[in-house]
């Protein structure tokens, strides 16, 4: 059937173009499946066989390469600068009161608005806190007890 050859050729081209336009691997498996179906159509295979080849090849390639692709594409993901603040400790530069909507700190050279994890807690200026998450442009913190260093004990 010459029209099936044309349909598989068009599908192969469409899947390849979609793959080139998108950022990640999205349709390469379907391009391979349609290419093999195009070959099957050119060799005179019935439509059912062509369709089976398309689905089987696409699914097998998708399953076989999925873990490798996820590992390869996710290996370069880095936390944003803001995400790197989570877990860090800092000193409060303005008393934190969620009720009064006050609280500031300077961390990595930048001033941040701070809110306490517990709405009822008031954290005094000069207190040590730990960043537990970021909500919008505010650091959500919890109080931590300062550990004395050797120089502080002497």
Number of separate strands: 6
So how many helices?
A: 4
Give the radius of gyration.
29 Å
Strand order of the largest sheet: 1-2-3-6-5
Oligomerization state of this entry? single chain
The computed structural class is alpha+beta
Q: Which ranges are low-confidence, i.e. pLDDT below 50, for 5 or more consecutive residues?
A: 148-154
What level of helicity do the residues show? 40-55%
Residue-averaged pLDDT, rounded? 86
The arrangement of helices and strands along the chain is HHHEEEEEEH
- What portion of the residues fall into strands of 2 or more residues? 15-25%
The 3D shape can be described as: rod-shaped
- Main beta sheet strand tally, sense and closure: 5 strands, mixed, barrel
Termini, distance in Å? Answer: 91 Å
Protein described:
- This protein is α+β, with helices and mostly antiparallel strands and 154 residues long.
- It has four helices and six strands; from the N terminus they run αααββββββα.
- α1 (2-21) runs antiparallel to α2 and α2 packs antiparallel against α3.
- The protein starts with a helix and ends with a helix.
List the helices and strands and how they pair.
Blueprint: H1 2-21, H2 28-42, H3 47-74, E1 89-97, E2 102-107, E3 110-116, E4 122-123, E5 128-135, E6 138-143, H4 150-153
Name a few traits of the molecule.
154 residues; alpha+beta; five-stranded mixed barrel; 4 helices; 44% helix; rod-shaped; disordered C terminus
